[in-house]
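Design review, sub-item: ligand-bound model
Attendees: FS, YL, KQ
YL presented the inputs for the SN-glycerol-3-phosphate complex:
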Amino acid sequence: MKIFLDTANLEELKQGAAWGIVDGVTTNPTLIAKEGVAIEEQIRRICAIVDGDISAEVVATEADAMIQEGRGLAKIHQNVVVKLPLTRDGIRACSTLSKDGIRTNVTLCFSAAQALLAAKAGAYIVSPFIGRLDDIGTPGIALIQEIVTIYRNYGYPTQILAASLRSPMHVIDSAKAGAHIGTMPFKVLDMLFQHPLTDRGLEQFLKDYAKAFQPAGVR
Ligand code: G3P
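KQ shared the predicted structure:
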């Protein structure tokens, strides 16, 4: 499964990129607003840090305006993927941009029916939101499983990006369900490293080594 960071924060992206395990980035208007820099400039900076698919979301809500905005975003860098909401206008914009060879990420997907529409419209990526479904008492991971089944049945090439991942369990369950990509906040990526037995084991290894090789008298 590819790992994407769901942030527009450059420091977090630099740290994740330095680990060599970040395959791409997703942003949304909320994440861009948090950084206080206009989207074109912030996406340009992100593209200079992470070499992979970088999702940049339109804020227009009408199809023609989305198409125009999407074309502009796609021009920023060859790695930009234009993110569109799963509305009637968004799907129309997705069909047009996909036919023009512009890669799209259809976001705010909360049902298998919506995911089917995204695939039909030629989306490069569809983004089902796991955490937000869990928030309303609907198991988000079941949606990933449904979409995986439907896309496999018909060989749709649209990649399934598990979004709104809030914990390592969400990441693991998405991978088990067959999501192509998991996008997560930096905090969740950092949590994937943690295991108390790793810390305890390393501490013991270093202690044993130091005891064996320290000069006599220092022991
Ligand atoms: O990838 C979508 C993400 O930004 C939403 O996450 O935690 O606000 O539901 P969350």
